[in-house]
């Protein structure tokens, strides 16, 4: 062992020197060179810092730098996050997104353009005027629809969600709430009264028919049977035709 190399290192180093820091790392740790002024110092970390990606070898695990426009990367040619001013697309950092895509300034990625989508129109509402459905001839009716997909920054904007058109209804007078309620109550009472009257008349009719039937049956039982009148020919004496 070189005199400058120590075996009793700290901070995860397997071997180290006073001048260069860590020279090798303990198992499962990554070796990375950090620049301090004009000098590079070796350190051992459990994971690679931002701007580096880790590669494992049989003898050592190393951290290597990502591309200059990458903030974090999986490999040197596949970025996972870009630095400010660049947009991530398919593992690359671009200053401008390709055609058909748009830049998302929130995620700093190139994403698909999303257009607005609306639902089908609802049926037309009843014809009204000043909130009423009576007391006028011309009014308005409306229909509405909902937005089911809001657009992205470069997507097609949403259409109108309501429509109104003129309508014509048969003129009729508006009934007051109390008067209308009273009329409905009177109609209901009259209907019940008519039904009760018909029921009573039908009951009386059945009772009268039953009484007439019983009376005929009683008369048939109490009236004596008529005797059969004798034949006139039987009472005539025989005529003597000898003389």
From TrEMBL:
One of its GO terms (biological process) is positive regulation of non-canonical Wnt signaling pathway. Residues 175-219 have a biased composition (Basic and acidic residues). It holds the Pfam family TSP1_spondin. Keywords: Disulfide bond, Glycoprotein, Heparin-binding, Repeat, Secreted, Sensory transduction, Signal, Wnt signaling pathway. Gene3D superfamilies: Hormone Receptor, Insulin-like Growth Factor Receptor 1, Chain A, domain 2 (2.10.220.10), Thrombospondin type-1 (TSP1) repeat (2.20.100.10). InterPro entries: Furin_repeat (IPR006212), Growth_fac_rcpt_cys_sf (IPR009030), R-spondin (IPR051514), Rspo_Fu-CRD_dom (IPR043601), TSP1_rpt (IPR000884), TSP1_rpt_sf (IPR036383), TSP1_spondin_dom (IPR044004). Residues 116-170 form the Spondin-like TSP1 domain. The keyword Transmembrane does not apply. One of its GO terms (molecular function) is heparin binding. Its main location: secreted. Residues 11-110 form the R-spondin Fu-CRD domain. GO terms for cellular component: extracellular region. Belongs to the R-spondin family. Activator of the canonical Wnt signaling pathway by acting as a ligand for LGR4-6 receptors, which acts as a key regulator of angiogenesis. Upon binding to LGR4-6 (LGR4, LGR5 or LGR6), LGR4-6 associate with phosphorylated LRP6 and frizzled receptors that are activated by extracellular Wnt receptors, triggering the canonical Wnt signaling pathway to increase expression of target genes. Also regulates the canonical Wnt/beta-catenin-dependent pathway and non-canonical Wnt signaling by acting as an inhibitor of ZNRF3, an important regulator of the Wnt signaling pathway. This is R-spondin-3. It comes from Rhinopomastus cyanomelas.
């Amino acid at each position: 062992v070189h005199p400058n190399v120590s075996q009793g290192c700290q901070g995860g180093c397997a071997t180290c020197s006073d001048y260069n820091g860590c020279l090798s790392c303990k198992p499962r740790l990554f070796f990375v060179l950090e620049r301090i002024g004009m000098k590079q110092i070796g350190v051992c970390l459990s994971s690679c810092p931002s701007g580096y990606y880790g590669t494992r070898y049989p003898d050592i695990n190393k951290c290597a730098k990502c591309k200059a426009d990458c903030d974090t990367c999986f490999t040197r040619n596949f970025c996972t996050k870009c630095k400010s001013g660049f947009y991530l697309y398919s593992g690359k950092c671009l200053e401008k997104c390709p055609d058909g895509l748009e830049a998302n300034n929130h995620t700093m990625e190139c994403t698909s353009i999303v257009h607005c989508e609306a639902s089908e129109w609802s049926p037309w509402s009843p014809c009204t005027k000043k909130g009423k459905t009576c007391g006028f001839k011309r009014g308005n009716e409306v229909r509405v629809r909902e937005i089911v997909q809001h657009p992205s920054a470069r997507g097609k904007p949403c259409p109108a969600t309501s429509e109104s058109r003129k309508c014509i209804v048969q003129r009729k007078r508006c009934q007051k709430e109390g008067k209308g309620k009273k009329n409905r109550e009177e109609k209901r009472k009259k209907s019940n009264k008519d039904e009760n009257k018909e029921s009573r008349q039908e009951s009386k009719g059945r009772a009268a028919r039953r009484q007439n039937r019983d009376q005929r049956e009683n008369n048939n039982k109490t009236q004596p049977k008529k005797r059969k009148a004798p034949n006139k020919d039987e009472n005539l004496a025989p005529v003597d035709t000898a003389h």
